[in-house]
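In response to reviewer comment 3 from the previous cycle, which asked for concrete evidence that the modeling workflow produces usable outputs, we include below a single protein chain processed end to end. The sequence was submitted unchanged, and the resulting structure tokens are shown without manual editing.
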Amino acid sequence: MSHSSTGTTGIAVAIVIAIAVLAPRAGADQVREKVVVLDVSITGDAPKELRKSLVASLGGGLYSAGYAVIQPDKLKEALSTAPELDGCATPTCLETLAVMLGETRLFVRARITAAGAAYNIELEMLTPSAGSGGAIARIEQSCEVCSLPELNSTLSDAAVALRQRVAEQSSAADAVFRFTIKSEPPGASVMIDGLAAGTTMLSSDLPAGRHQVTLRYSGYKDAVRTIEVSRSGINELEVTLERAPPPPPPRRYRPHLTLGLVSIGAGLVGIGAGAYLLAIDGDGTCSRSDGGECKEVNATLLPGLVSLGAGAGLTGLGVYLITRTRLRQQAAAAAIAPTRGGWAVVVTGRF
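The workflow returned the following structure tokens.
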């Protein structure tokens, strides 16, 4: 009886130990972030049937990284009702797909490029809240000479590295550091990432990463700089603004120039016509019905003189109008200047 009690107690202890060991694992599976594999595309000279094993390797790597992978059948079912979402990558499209799946907002896309025994692997983690690009992390790994088992292992390792990159990006995005912006001359207005931030000298708390800074000051050219905010970097920007060239004087419409050119053109035509009419004045022949010939005198003297005079007048008017546009009115100035023989009054100006 005593032996039986001891055996029962041992079994009970073993069950408790098993529960204690397995419970954390079960709990860990429950809190895993869920992810959907959107696509595994293969380009190059790799066999297309390789895709099935690569999908399995990617899923295994994501699980090893701490994710729970949603079954491909659920994605296939969602795309069957909305085929336009196939190849989804934009935030709007990802948001629609996330609502349809109802389990995750994380998506993974894989691209494998093959060239003989060399493979290049590119993984992207996407989410609807990542902005215009959709991706929150990217990673790329290559294998120069890979067997198929090595390729699958490399893809699995890349999935683990992708999780680490996501964590790094998230940590960096949460970090905020003090950044100081100075300018010469001071007092320039500052825009950071398109938003007004104040005037120099300016100190502002900025999240880690790249930002675009624009400095503006009246009479100076805009200065645009890209800054990198980080824990270890020099979080300070000093810019010497460059003076802007003076604006060109406004161009004035000068109708006299246009009228002058038109007048000269018409005048030259009139002069040419008048010269022709004068040249043929008194010339010409005619035919008679009896076969004889008679002189026919051209009376073009008066029209020729009129045309010649009008052409000369228009040409002169045109020259006057063009010359007038080049004259600038300037007030006359008078001054008394010494000369060898005494003094003289000097008048300057354009008339």
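The helical segments are 2-30, 50-64, 72-81, 91-101, 148-174, 255-280, 301-326. We consider this sufficient to address the reviewer's concern, and the full set will be provided in the supplementary archive.
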